């Protein structure tokens, strides 16, 4: 599924891929999409983020977008969720930065509404019991 929002002269996109009951969400947009951060979560675990260095050695701040989205959808997650985020707007203005918060909230709400309607009927994994071993 693809969700998007355009405000203040740029677009933010959330590509959501289902892998069994798990989600891979790619948040991109602006003039130079990239992967600046990776955030992971489940319904019952805290969000954890890795921030990659940018061209000048500072760490990317795209986790602000991913965390906002993750907190909105967390209670509806059927499995694990990995969110990559990388939105870069050349010479971004303070107003565009302010709008990014509302844009990511909107994307989170779009994804949440989709999750509430999505049927995740995938087979459950089968494991060996403690008394069994592979043959």
TrEMBL record:
Domain Prenylated flavin chaperone LpdD-like: start-end pairs: 7-115
A Pfam family it matches: PAC_bac
InterPro entries referenced in this protein's UniProt entry, alphabetically: LpdD_chaperone-like (IPR048844)
Name of the molecule in the record: Amino acid decarboxylase
Species name: Companilactobacillus huachuanensis
């Amino acid at each position: 599924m693809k969700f998007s929002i355009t405000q203040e002269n740029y677009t933010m996109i959330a590509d959501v891929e289902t892998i069994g009951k798990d989600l891979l969400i790619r948040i991109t947009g602006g003039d130079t999409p990239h992967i600046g951060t990776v955030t992971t979560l489940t319904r019952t675990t805290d969000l954890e983020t890795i921030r990659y260095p940018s061209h000048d050695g500072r760490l990317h701040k795209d986790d602000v977008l991913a965390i906002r989205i993750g907190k909105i959808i967390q209670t509806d997650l059927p499995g694990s969720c990995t969110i990559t985020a990388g939105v870069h707007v050349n010479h971004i203005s303070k107003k565009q930065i302010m709008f990014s918060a509302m844009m990511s909230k909107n994307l989170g709400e779009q994804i949440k509404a989709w999750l509430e309607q999505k049927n995740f009927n995938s087979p459950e994994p089968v494991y060996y019991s403690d008394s069994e071993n592979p043959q």
